[in-house]
């Protein structure tokens, strides 16, 4: 059974004396090796923290990332199975338990090290990895799953492969290095042996000093469009989500929260008590709940309570936009990125300015916030859809007044909500209610509550300035952004700053072009609305700003938007190839007046994408995307079908947000009350989508969030080509 030893680069230890030496002395006291805590069932044999092999031939992969629909329960097992030499039909999946092995060290590093490199960056990265491992910081987000765990899963597969070959070599009395694996067998001149037949003996073998990684292209699973492991159970209904959990003597609860900063004025308890099946009522200044023998009775009782709230603030989108404009006019903000001499680039010529505004956007996941809690003495169990199990555990422990060791979280399949399922509000409510009722409690937020208490993508305003030089090239570029900082609210709600790297308010603001002088300035602008992480984060608005502005500049330069971009991508050949491929596949027509075609590109999450869209305006005066084509370079592709699914889903997600009804506020809450009020496009309004994957041997990049930011600017640019009118606000409203 292998232990875990974090990889530490020697160069990170070579720093001077003083504070640095003291830091390293303190860190040298930390443990460097950990034992796996993965449990085995009957007939199962433990090989490492991610792998068990059963005597009946099953290969069970423990996945350290949560399945949100992004396919991680397929891609990570596929990586391990490929290196192991397993047969895909023998692969089973289970969630990995919390432990140092499962820490997402990539997210920890990105939080620890900012955009500016410095002398101590190596030490900061090392410290971040160590903290993440020690705290078992399991986090699913930021399109990091494959990037963070590809090497780990390969090593887990290679180690188990070596042990299996050693066990077979002992039987055949041959050098283990002379053997190979394929299709679930160890193979050699003497024949072949099933993994299951060798599992018990192999698990007792010792790992070699050097792992031998598989070579060649035969009998490989990586790169194949293998069937997703999570889909059959989702199709036939046997997949268990948090709302499917049933415990003995359990009560069901529906809840309603106060608007941000508000408090409870009154409830009608007598009316609620008359609802059949109601068992208990609960109210506090910030939220109320009804518990019953079934959820429908609980929700009826909650509506009968008819809570009235004191409203602390009355935000409006118009007021927010005006405040952001004022902030940009009065304050230059904090410079977060700079390249070249911007003052020199702007000197001696006219500059062009573009002003853009992005309104708040809903998460609107299919699965609302949900949690089931059982308190047995001083032991607390939680079943919930969680993107960060450690954050959920710590929040529950704080509410219950219990040590963290007394709390067990069972991460369930997540029914959508990239970023939304970091939130722990439903878990905290379920813990409180279970303590009050002294019975297991399941909290399920109604669709109305999910919409009203959503943690929205925050609004943002961008003021972009550029100067065109000779030949139409951009000589200088400045982006100024006014937006609320999500991080303080996240830290307050979650009790952790581990997600700060995912909540950078200017992520992607520096355009991916070879512009000599670039600057990005940020003005933090507070707004009285609950905001949180959203699929693709700040890239959703920074890309809209940049790619819309580039399109405007191309028109001023008198150049085709494609040619204008290409001439600035000489130092970014991967992105240039994506752009050229998307234009070819999408039959780009130059984007001339009346063409109805627009494009946008993005470099983020270690990947590259270019998107071409063709739009039309319906009889209802809504924009509709008829066709979308994306070319993607995400490095080595583990499963092309999964990548295409994520790009397609990301485009639809971005299109929906860009074409939905605008969100405003009334009585301190968002005005929509459900999917119908948001007016997301249905199947009839969804476009034909084509995704072209570009072959690459580079390290894998992320794709789950990659396509989302390209949708809105491609749509806006296409609308300009069609109508001659530049829409600089999101969502895109014709005639607004």
Automatic annotation (TrEMBL):
InterPro entries: Ald_Oxase/Xan_DH_a/b, Ald_Oxase/Xan_DH_a/b_sf, AldOxase/xan_DH_MoCoBD1, AldOxase/xan_DH_MoCoBD2, AldOxase/xan_DH_Mopterin-bd_sf, N-heterocyclic_Hydroxylase, OxRdtase_Mopterin-bd_su_IorB, TAT_signal. GO terms for molecular function: oxidoreductase activity. SUPFAM superfamilies: CO dehydrogenase molybdoprotein N-domain-like (SSF54665), Molybdenum cofactor-binding domain (SSF56003). Residues 236-313 form the Aldehyde oxidase/xanthine dehydrogenase a/b hammerhead domain. Keywords: Membrane, Transmembrane, Transmembrane helix. The chain crosses the membrane at residues 12-30. This is Xanthine dehydrogenase family protein molybdopterin-binding subunit.
């Amino acid at each position: 059974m292998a232990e875990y030893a974090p990889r530490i680069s020697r160069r990170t230890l070579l720093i001077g004396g003083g504070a640095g030496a003291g830091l390293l002395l303190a860190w040298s006291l930390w443990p460097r090796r950990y034992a796996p805590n993965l449990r085995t069932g009957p007939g199962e044999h433990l090989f490492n923290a991610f792998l068990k092999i059963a005597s009946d031939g099953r290969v069970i992969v423990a996945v350290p990332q949560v399945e949100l629909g992004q396919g991680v329960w397929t891609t990570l097992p596929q990586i391990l199975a490929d290196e192991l030499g397993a047969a895909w039909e023998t692969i089973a999946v289970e969630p990995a338990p919390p432990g140092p092995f499962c820490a997402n060290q990539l997210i920890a590093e990105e939080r620890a090290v900012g955009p500016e490199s410095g002398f101590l960056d190596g030490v900061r990265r090392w410290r971040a990895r160590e903290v993440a491992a020690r705290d078992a910081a399991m986090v699913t987000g930021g399109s990091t799953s494959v990037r963070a765990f590809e090497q780990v899963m390969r090593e887990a597969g290679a180690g188990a492969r070596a042990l299996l070959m050693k066990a077979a070599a002992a039987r055949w009395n041959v050098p283990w290095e002379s053997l190979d694996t394929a299709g679930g067998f160890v193979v050699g001149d003497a024949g072949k042996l099933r993994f299951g037949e060798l599992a018990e003996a192999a698990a007792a073998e010792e790992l070699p000093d050097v792992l031998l990684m598989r070579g060649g292209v035969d009998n490989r699973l990586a790169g194949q469009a293998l069937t997703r492991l999570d889909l059959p159970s989702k199709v036939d209904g046997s997949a268990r989500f948090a709302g499917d959990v049933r415990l003995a003597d359990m009560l069901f609860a529906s809840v309603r929260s106060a608007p941000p900063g508000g408090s409870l004025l009154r409830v009608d308890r007598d009316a609620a008590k008359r609802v059949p099946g109601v068992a208990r009522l609960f109210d506090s200044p910030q939220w109320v709940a009804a518990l019953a023998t079934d959820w429908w009775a609980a929700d009826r009782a909650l509506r009968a309570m008819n809570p009235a709230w004191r409203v602390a603030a009355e935000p409006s989108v118009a007021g927010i936009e005006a405040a952001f404009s004022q902030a940009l006019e009065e304050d230059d903000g904090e410079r977060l990125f700079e390249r070249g001499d911007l003052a020199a680039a702007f000197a001696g010529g006219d500059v062009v300015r573009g002003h853009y505004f992005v309104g708040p956007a809903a998460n609107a996941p299919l699965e609302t916030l949900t949690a089931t809690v059982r308190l047995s003495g001083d032991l607390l169990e939680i079943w919930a859809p969680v993107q960060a199990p450690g954050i959920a555990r710590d929040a529950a422990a704080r509410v219950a007044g219990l040590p963290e060791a007394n709390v067990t979280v069972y991460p369930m399949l997540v029914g959508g909500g990239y970023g939304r399922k970091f939130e722990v509000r439903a878990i905290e409510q379920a813990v409180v209610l279970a303590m009050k009722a002294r019975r297991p409690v399941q909290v399920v937020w109604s669709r109305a509550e999910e919409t009203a208490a959503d943690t929205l993508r925050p609004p943002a305003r961008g003021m972009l300035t550029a100067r065109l030089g000779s030949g139409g090239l951009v000589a200088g570029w400045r982006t100024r952004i006014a937006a609320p900082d999500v991080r303080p609210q996240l830290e307050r709600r979650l009790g952790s700053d581990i997600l700060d790297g995912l909540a950078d308010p200017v992520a992607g603001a520096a355009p991916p072009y070879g512009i000599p002088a670039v600057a990005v300035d940020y003005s933090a602008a507070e707004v009285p609305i609950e905001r949180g992480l959203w699929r693709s984060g700040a890239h959703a608005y920074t890309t809209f700003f940049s790619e819309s502005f580039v399109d405007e500049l191309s028109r001023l330069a008198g150049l085709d938007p494609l040619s204008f971009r290409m001439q600035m991508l000489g130092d970014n050949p991967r992105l240039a190839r994506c752009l050229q491929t998307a234009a070819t596949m999408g039959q780009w027509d130059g984007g001339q007046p009346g063409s109805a075609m627009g494009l946008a590109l993005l470099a983020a999450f270690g990947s590259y994408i270019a998107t071409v869209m063709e739009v039309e305006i319906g009889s209802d005066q809504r924009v509709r995307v008829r066709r979308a084509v994306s070319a993607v370079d995400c490095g080595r592709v583990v499963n092309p079908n999964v990548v295409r699914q994520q790009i397609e889903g990301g485009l639809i997600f971005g299109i929906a947000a860009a074409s939905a009804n605008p969100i405003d506020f009334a009585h301190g809450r968002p005005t929509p009350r459900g999917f119908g009020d948001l007016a997301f496009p249905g199947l009839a309004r969804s476009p034909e989508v084509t995704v072209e994957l570009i072959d690459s041997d580079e390290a894998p990049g992320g794709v789950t969030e990659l396509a989302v930011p390209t949708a809105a600017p491609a749509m806006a640019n296409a609308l300009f080509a069609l109508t001659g009118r530049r829409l600089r606000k999101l969502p895109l409203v014709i005639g607004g």
